[in-house]
Amino acid sequence: MTFIKLKDLLFTVLFMVYMPAAFAQTDSLLQELSHVIENKGIYISQKQESIAQLRSRLRENRLSTEERFNIYKLLHNEYRPFKYDSAFSYAVKLQETARQLNDPARQAYAKLQLSHTLLSSGMYKEAMDSLNTVKPAPLPDSIKTQYYSLMARSFYDLSGFTQDTWYSPLYAEAGKSYADSALALLEKNTLPWYAMRGMKQGIADEEGARENFQMILEQFNPTLNQYAMAANSLGSIYYNRGEVEKGINMMARAAIADMKASVKEGVALMTLAEYLYQSGDESRAYDYIKQALKDADFYGAKQRKIQVAAILPVIEGERLATVESQRSRLLIFSIAVSLLSLLVVIFAFIIFKQLKQLRQAKRVVTEANVNLQTLNNKLQETNTMLQETNAKLLEANSIKEEYIGYSFNMYTEYLEKIDKFKKSIHRKLMSRKYDEIGHVMDSVNLKKERELLYKGFDRIFLKLFPDFIPVFNAYFKEEDRFTPKNDELLNIELRIFALIRIGIQDHEQIARIMEYSVRTIYNYKTKVKNKSLLSNEEFEQKIMEIKAF
Q1: Burial letters for 8-23: b for 16+ Cβ neighbours within 10 Å, e otherwise?
Q2: Contact predicate 248/276, CB 8 Å
Q3: In the chain, what percentage of residues exceed pLDDT 70?
Q4: Average pLDDT value for residue range 186-194
Q5: How far is CA 136 from CA 9, 70, 109, 144, 489, in A?
Q6: What predicted TM-score, i.e. pTM, was given to this entire model?
């Protein structure tokens, strides 16, 4: 039980792996065949060119009878699978020329060619009548071989054609006898030997026949006609054994070879159409059977037309039934599609209406979001401005606090100095030392006092703005930067802009503090700003942005 299950599983796996590849190969061959059929004009032109060259040689002057016989032989070989009436005509001319040569071997050869032509066209009685006039005994082995081969094929074809329980076995037995005679004369292990042995074994021993025809394809380099013959036989063997895919595959190869060789009397395409019809590929079957009928019409043999005509109505009828069925399904499909389309339109309308409402709601939400974002931006801007204002207020408060303390200290020192000065004057007056009052007055050095005032201002300013000098100089080239002397904290230029930074913008006020004229202060400012890397307006803005602490 387990073994059976494993065997079934193995078969399933092999089927899944092998069959897709086999189907793909067959489909590729059928596509190639369809392509070859579309381009059949190329191969027909090649065939007609070969025939035209041979016929042109017949028009040459001073051809001997033997040369004419050889050209007729070549023309017959060209026409035999291509066009029946021309092949028959040249077979007759072969006989006439052979009689003129008075050569029994050539006369027998010519009769065999006529018999071959009649046999290819399905005229079995006429072919047998012609063959029966040939006496093989005195003939060369090469012609004897042809005679026995044609006799064998004739009886085998009759056996297959009659399909009678009484006569078919008799014809098959006669064919076997002639095949044995032919095999006795043929050299073993040659292509003709395998072909004859395969034909002989085709009825009683299919596997033996398959091996012989397979040998032709694998071990030799057959012509297109020989390849088509072997592939056709293999296709029939495989199909009869139930190996449908292999049968179609080989029959397609045979049909391709026939088309490329411009064989119009071949049966491969007709047989392939029947196989495809039985396999359900009605479209290709119909195309191929129509082409087979065209080939049969072109070849001109009634038997081939009858064979094709017997199959064509069946395939065409099935195709029409399929088309009618497809038309009914298409009608149902069209109705279903129409209903679905109506439902789609209704749903589309509903969806469009909902989308419209959704867009309106989205627009309201978007506008609200935009307004909120705008408000948020404004709040952020206001918050930033408040933060900046607070920072400035904190900075201003710090500056004010520092300068208030500085001012109280400075005023206290000056009050103490005034008090000392007042007491000193008072003592001199009380002691009536009037002449020493002048010395007391001279002891007051206003210049030194002013310098102390500047140093006090510079010290308290740099305490408030420790980065003032480096930031200030960053706006100048290195050679134009301002550096105070060793005993200075700020020089004149730095002090002017230090006063501006703490909010003293008026030139007159700056001039009074610095004890310079207004023009002098203006000139200093202009000179400094002209040296700067920044514009005048930007320079003053940057100075005001220098941070305290």
Answers
A1: eeeeeeeeeeeeeeee
A2: yes
A3: 82
A4: 94
A5: 60, 22, 11, 6, 143
A6: 0.56
